[in-house]
């Protein structure tokens, strides 16, 4: 069976027909994901090819089962199949092009999706600009370091040229984060679509974002209030395998830590010196979360085992007996981390989504209609 790597409508329909008529035996999606999750470190055309091959297999596996893959609130894996069939390809190509120019943007997209979902649900509220009458989420101190807004804008503009008023900014952001994970070396997975864009974005709502000073118990409780298990929380924290933290978010660990310790005792002594040197250049100086800041892997968990977690909320996952075993498991088994991460990301992506009249499809991701 042949199908071009860049999915087109006619090709996809042909693939589906051939698959359903011939009953070709395909591997299970989980097996596909596990086998590729740690092997696709190459950049460029090979990565794009793998992505599309896996996407075709995943699509065909679900469609051949009867086109029935709906999740909560009416979201669907193939929500745009008829109304805007090229939407996913446009987002994927936009993200791919951006990361080829600047690989550091992957971390920004993943973090932006997380910060969107934890405030008012996954509704694209993080994308809205402030006005003279309203301070929006993106201007919160917790969000000032977010990057990649221009990628969402570019994808939205390209989609609007083909399918005006159909694809929400919230869905574009969710797809972009998913694609950023893959193009950085992480697993490929699909997400349901159909989110609507929210109309509210207020700076005060960002108080619901997890603080970098929270301990393991506080993180478990905060994530538990949103329906996540401790293991899912630790898996989602693994998103910190991409990107950097600014000194302002961890400098409190380096002096006057508490009444009995000047430096956070959970920090490796040598790594504490490294962080202190970083912070000597100012609060905005950046420290990578692990040694491979642009590669999605399990090195983040290795860092925690070495007591080299940058944020207190990172290192507490290893310091606490409640979560240490999960950290050790992910450090030992990258495939397990990849699988649990993608499952947790799909779950997070349907948090408090807007549907029907509760939301809208913005014409411009930065402005409410």
TrEMBL record:
<keyword id="KW-0812">Transmembrane</keyword>
<feature type="binding site">
    <location>
        <position position="125"/>
    </location>
    <ligand>
        <name>Ca(2+) 1</name>
    </ligand>
</feature>
<keyword id="KW-0472">Membrane</keyword>
<comment type="function">
    <text>Removal of H(2)O(2), oxidation of toxic reductants, biosynthesis and degradation of lignin, suberization, auxin catabolism, response to environmental stresses such as wounding, pathogen attack and oxidative stress. These functions might be dependent on each isozyme/isoform in each plant tissue.</text>
</comment>
<keyword id="KW-0408">Iron</keyword>
<feature type="binding site">
    <location>
        <position position="137"/>
    </location>
    <ligand>
        <name>Ca(2+) 1</name>
    </ligand>
</feature>
<feature type="binding site">
    <location>
        <position position="241"/>
    </location>
    <ligand>
        <name>Ca(2+) 2</name>
    </ligand>
</feature>
<keyword id="KW-0479">Metal-binding</keyword>
<dbReference type="GO" id="GO:0005576">
    <property type="term" value="C:extracellular region"/>
</dbReference>
<dbReference type="InterPro" id="IPR019793">
    <property type="entry name" value="Peroxidases_heam-ligand_BS"/>
</dbReference>
<feature type="disulfide bond">
    <location>
        <begin position="84"/>
        <end position="163"/>
    </location>
</feature>
<keyword id="KW-1015">Disulfide bond</keyword>
<dbReference type="Pfam" id="PF00141">
    <property type="entry name" value="peroxidase"/>
</dbReference>
<dbReference type="GO" id="GO:0042744">
    <property type="term" value="P:hydrogen peroxide catabolic process"/>
</dbReference>
<feature type="binding site">
    <location>
        <position position="121"/>
    </location>
    <ligand>
        <name>Ca(2+) 1</name>
    </ligand>
</feature>
<keyword id="KW-0376">Hydrogen peroxide</keyword>
<dbReference type="InterPro" id="IPR033905">
    <property type="entry name" value="Secretory_peroxidase"/>
</dbReference>
<protein>
    <recommendedName>
        <fullName>Peroxidase</fullName>
        <ecNumber>1.11.1.7</ecNumber>
    </recommendedName>
</protein>
<dbReference type="InterPro" id="IPR019794">
    <property type="entry name" value="Peroxidases_AS"/>
</dbReference>
<keyword id="KW-1133">Transmembrane helix</keyword>
<feature type="transmembrane region" description="Helical">
    <location>
        <begin position="49"/>
        <end position="67"/>
    </location>
</feature>
<feature type="disulfide bond">
    <location>
        <begin position="169"/>
        <end position="365"/>
    </location>
</feature>
<dbReference type="InterPro" id="IPR000823">
    <property type="entry name" value="Peroxidase_pln"/>
</dbReference>
<keyword id="KW-0964">Secreted</keyword>
<feature type="active site" description="Proton acceptor">
    <location>
        <position position="115"/>
    </location>
</feature>
<dbReference type="GO" id="GO:0020037">
    <property type="term" value="F:heme binding"/>
</dbReference>
<feature type="binding site">
    <location>
        <position position="123"/>
    </location>
    <ligand>
        <name>Ca(2+) 1</name>
    </ligand>
</feature>
<dbReference type="GO" id="GO:0006979">
    <property type="term" value="P:response to oxidative stress"/>
</dbReference>
<feature type="binding site" description="axial binding residue">
    <location>
        <position position="240"/>
    </location>
    <ligand>
        <name>heme b</name>
    </ligand>
</feature>
<feature type="binding site">
    <location>
        <position position="297"/>
    </location>
    <ligand>
        <name>Ca(2+) 2</name>
    </ligand>
</feature>
<keyword id="KW-0325">Glycoprotein</keyword>
<feature type="disulfide bond">
    <location>
        <begin position="247"/>
        <end position="279"/>
    </location>
</feature>
<dbReference type="GO" id="GO:0046872">
    <property type="term" value="F:metal ion binding"/>
</dbReference>
<dbReference type="GO" id="GO:0140825">
    <property type="term" value="F:lactoperoxidase activity"/>
</dbReference>
<keyword id="KW-0575">Peroxidase</keyword>
<feature type="site" description="Transition state stabilizer">
    <location>
        <position position="111"/>
    </location>
</feature>
<feature type="binding site">
    <location>
        <position position="290"/>
    </location>
    <ligand>
        <name>Ca(2+) 2</name>
    </ligand>
</feature>
<keyword id="KW-0106">Calcium</keyword>
<dbReference type="InterPro" id="IPR002016">
    <property type="entry name" value="Haem_peroxidase"/>
</dbReference>
<comment type="similarity">
    <text>Belongs to the peroxidase family. Ascorbate peroxidase subfamily.</text>
</comment>
<feature type="binding site">
    <location>
        <position position="210"/>
    </location>
    <ligand>
        <name>substrate</name>
    </ligand>
</feature>
<keyword id="KW-0560">Oxidoreductase</keyword>
């Amino acid at each position: 069976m042949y199908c071009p790597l860049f999915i087109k409508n006619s090709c996809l329909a042909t693939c589906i027909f051939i698959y359903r008529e011939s009953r070709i035996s395909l591997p299970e999606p989980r097996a596909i994901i596990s086998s590729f999750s740690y092997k696709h470190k190459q950049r460029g055309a090979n990565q794009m090819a793998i992505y599309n091959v896996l996407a075709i297999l995943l699509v065909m596996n679900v469609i051949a089962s009867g086109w029935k893959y709906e999740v909560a609130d009416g979201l669907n894996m193939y929500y745009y199949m008829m109304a805007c069939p090229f939407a996913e390809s446009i987002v994927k190509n936009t993200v791919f092009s951006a990361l080829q120019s600047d690989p550091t943007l992957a971390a920004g997209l993943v973090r932006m999706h997380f910060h969107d979902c934890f405030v008012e649900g996954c509704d694209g509220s993080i994308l809205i600009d402030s006005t003279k009458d309203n301070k929006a989420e993106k201007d919160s101190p917790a969000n000032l370091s977010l990057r990649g807004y221009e990628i969402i804008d570019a994808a939205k503009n390209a989609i609007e040229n083909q399918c005006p008023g159909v694809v929400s900014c919230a869905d574009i952001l969710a797809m972009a984060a998913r694609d950023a994970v893959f193009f950085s070396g992480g697993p490929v997975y699909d997400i349901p679509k159909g989110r609507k864009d929210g109309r509210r974005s207020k700076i005060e709502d960002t108080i619901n974002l997890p603080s970098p000073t929270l301990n393991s118990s506080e993180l478990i409780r905060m994530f538990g209030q949103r329906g996540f298990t401790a293991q899912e929380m630790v898996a989602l924290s693994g998103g910190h395998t991409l990107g950097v933290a600014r000194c302002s978010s961890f400098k409190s660990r380096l002096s006057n830590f508490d009444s009995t310790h000047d430096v956070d005792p959970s920090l490796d002594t040598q790594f504490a010196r490294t962080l202190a040197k970083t912070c000597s250049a100012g609060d905005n100086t950046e420290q990578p979360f692990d040694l491979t800041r642009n590669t999605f892997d399990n090195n983040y968990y290795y860092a925690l085992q070495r007591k080299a977690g940058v944020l207190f909320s990172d290192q507490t996952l290893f310091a606490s007996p409640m979560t240490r075993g999960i950290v050790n498991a992910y450090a030992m088994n990258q495939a397990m981390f990849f699988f649990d991460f993608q499952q947790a990301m799909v779950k997070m992506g349907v948090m408090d989504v807007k549907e029907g009249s509760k939301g809208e499809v913005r014409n411009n991701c930065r402005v409410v209609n």
